[in-house]
Amino acid sequence: MVTQKIIKILKNSGIGVLPTDTIYGLVGRALDKKTVERIYKVRKRNPKKPLIILISSLSDLKLFGVKPDKKTKIILKKLWPAPISVILDCPLKRFFYLHRGTNGLAFRLPAKKSLRDLLEETGPLVAPSANPEGLLPVKNIRKAKQYFGGKIDFYADGGNLESSPSTLLKIKGNKITMLRKGKIGYNLNIC
Prior knowledge:
191 residues; alpha/beta
């Protein structure tokens, strides 16, 4: 599925579709502004909406200037790895191309080990669902090719995925808010 060729494409600013720990994602390197802008263009995404960023470990947050306090770190360690995306504060102007003025970034540490291994090699990846804005997320590569054709650099076939997107939480101070119930539910009272 994910090959050295795909890793090389991603490291060289390429974008493509691959199975994540939830659904198929349109992925590219998060720390490469041109790559991120290309994903917005190909996906026809609302330029005001930020993207979810897949990370390989909690320490990857530092790459984005995100320094969770002690309590937030404890919560993240309880939550991850899992199909749960968490929005954390990121007010740094140099990451405007990612947070789009929201001053927050959504991160996910996937439970799928093969995906974390990929992220260790490529660095963090933005991973919106593999569909043009307003259309249904793809469940297979055939549909992804119908959506994107030759506008992207690779397709990694993971079979038919019948899943939901990640659960989306926001942590601000001592408050946890569920913004989207996804693949797994979450009891907001356990932290």
